[in-house]
Amino acid sequence: AQSVTQPDIHITVSEGASLELRCNYSYGATPYLFWYVQSPGQGLQLLLKYFSGDTLVQGIKGFEAEFKRSQSSFNLRKPSVHWSDAAEYFCAVGAKAAGNKLTFGGGTRVLVKP
Amino acid sequence: SAVISQKPSRDICQRGTSLTIQCQVDSQVTMMFWYRQQPGQSLTLIATANQGSEATYESGFVIDKFPISRPNLTFSTLTVSNMSPEDSSIYLCSVDPTGSDTQYFGPGTRLTVL
Question: Inter-chain contact A107–B48, Cβ cutoff 8 Å?
């Protein structure tokens, strides 16, 4: 069975500082990996995804993520956060073998201090 | 990607009643999914609703409580039946456009049951 762990429930970061959100997954084969963002009162927006190939993937809004097979991790990073990055971030894992169903981590809420 | 709309965006309902949530997508898609996001929680898959077949429900979710229709390739409904306060959640639909292996989410329906 698939599982996803986001160890940090809340993270507070100053505007302009760097941000890293952790994600660890459990799956037998190489899964499809995703990061989504949910702003207050909104649906989920896809930030980036990893299927195969280059382990460093670029996404929207200046985010990037690195797939590390040896650590079963897919951490999300941004070099300099903006106040508009305050939101909840979800890591998710899926696989064709599982009918592309997604399993989500518990989420990390990011607060940006001025 | 795909543009997805949901109706209603929010509702307040009395216990014992039922609510039908609509999900409309701007292109034809085979794979659609329904998720529940309880207050302060992550997303949990309710069911997969592929056109041309019966919905497939995840463990803990049953058709009598969450009947789903999928009459065509651009539309689906989820009904929350005989509601109780524990059903208060955000309900989100998503689509996986053919060949993308990526889910795109609607804005969600925020349901409050009194």
Answer: no
How far, in Å, CA of B95 to CA of B71, rounded? 15
Q: Which residues of A touch B (CB under 8 A)?
A: 32, 34, 36, 41-46, 49, 51, 90, 94, 96, 99-107
Q: State pLDDT tens for residues A39-87.
A: 988 889 999 999 989 999 999 999 999 999 999 999 999 999 999 999 9
Provide the pLDDT for residue A61. Answer: 95
- Shortest CA gap A18–chain B (Å): 25
* pLDDT for residue A29 is more than 80: no
Listing DSSP states for A7-72 in one string gives --SEEEEETTS-EEE--EEE-SSPPEEEEEEE-TT--EEEEEEE-SS-SEEE-GGG-EEEEEGGGT
Q: Is the pLDDT of residue A28 over 80?
A: no
Q: How far is B62 from chain A (nearest CA, A)?
A: 17
